[in-house]
Design brief:
The chain has 13 helices and 10 strands. With 313 residues, the chain is an alpha/beta fold. The structure holds uracil (URA).
Length: 313
């Protein structure tokens, strides 16, 4: 289970792993509370503990030859679970299974059930919202330690989620074009996102981007704040509304009100412009060209603000 916390509750006692230590606690249920109709419970349990990250079909076949699988109640689940493990669908399936089961109220104080954890020190440990459970990995920012410009996107897309790097997919290519046109070298800026895990929903075989909600933006602000504190850029360029809401720490701020209107916020300049995906999806060439030009202008404004700052010091 790696760094995930878990609890085993039985009528005789409980064991809780909080990510750093093992705690033993009181019983959490009476036998009557946890009794369920045998096979259905076992199958639901098997489905939910099946860990696609640890899948090793070779070892499974070694422990029990495939011809005997049909004698196991869970045998009929295995081929489906194995084939879904590769597509990332496994977690979605698990969530659904758990969702439809009524569940039982466990008689245990919340503090005992989940002892206080330290603040996460790296993205792998982050459970500040639920997005980690659907993503391949958290995607931190990249760039020089003392970059003067930080570009903040929305969240990693499909390719970024797999690569563990921001802006490597189609939006990243468009951003490269914008930077080239603005005369900004990609290697000199810090590139990151307001939300560090890919939020998506299955659509056939594809993972369809979903816009993060305010709760996820707020939860992930923790990481953006750390990046800003470490890099101390002079200008933050918000690419789209999600980035702007996170930077300004306001769910009310609108992109329209800030386009072409740099403001100072918490000791940095904030320049807002469109998200590259907005340019990619613009319905006509005129809108596309205007949005692209605004992005170029925003980067040039950022450079000017830095030059102006340097003159004042
Ligand atoms: N879109 C973003 O906002 N960020 C990325 O890293 C990729 C696509």
């Amino acid at each position: 289970m790696g760094k995930s916390s878990w609890m085993i509750g039985t009528p005789k006692g409980s064991a809780i792993w909080d990510g750093t230590g093992l705690h033993f606690g009181p019983p959490v249920a009476r036998v009557d509370d946890i009794a369920d109709s045998g096979e259905a419970l076992w199958l639901a349990y098997y489905r939910s503990i099946f860990n696609p990250a640890r899948l090793n079909t070779g070892a499974m076949e070694m422990h029990m030859p495939v011809r005997y699988w049909k004698n196991l109640p869970e045998g009929k689940l295995i081929p489906e679970l194995v084939s879904r493990a590769g597509t990332g669908g496994q977690r979605v399936g698990q969530a659904k299974e758990v969702d439809v089961r009524k569940g039982k109220t466990i008689d245990i104080a919340p503090a005992d059930a989940q002892p206080q954890r330290d603040a996460p020190t790296d993205l792998d440990q982050c459970r500040r919202c639920d997005l980690w459970s659907m993503a391949t990995q958290g995607v931190p920012g990249v760039g020089p330690d003392h970059a003067t410009i930080m570009l903040v996107g929305e969240q990693p897309g499909d390719q970024e989620d797999l690569a563990g790097l921001p802006f490597v997919g189609p939006a990243g290519k468009l951003l490269d074009d914008v930077m080239q046109q603005a005369g900004v070298d990609r290697d000199t800026v810090y590139l990151t996102n307001a939300v560090k895990h890919f939020k998506w929903e299955p659509r056939g075989k594809r993972r369809l981007h979903k816009t993060p909600g305010q709760r996820e933006i707020s939860a992930c602000h923790y990481w953006l704040e750390h990046e800003i504190a470490a890099i101390r850029p002079k200008v933050l360029v918000a690419l789209g509304s999600t980035a702007l809401k996170s930077i300004m720490q306001s769910s009310k701020v609108t992109l329209n009100s800030m386009l072409g209107n740099p403001v100072q916020h918490d000791g940095q300049w904030v320049v807002a412009t469109y998200h590259p995906a907005y340019v990619l999806r613009a319905p006509d060439e005129q809108l596309k060209a205007a949005a692209f030009a605004d992005m170029v202008k925003a980067l040039q404004t950022a450079e000017r603000l830095i030059a102006g700052d340097a003159r004042h010091h």
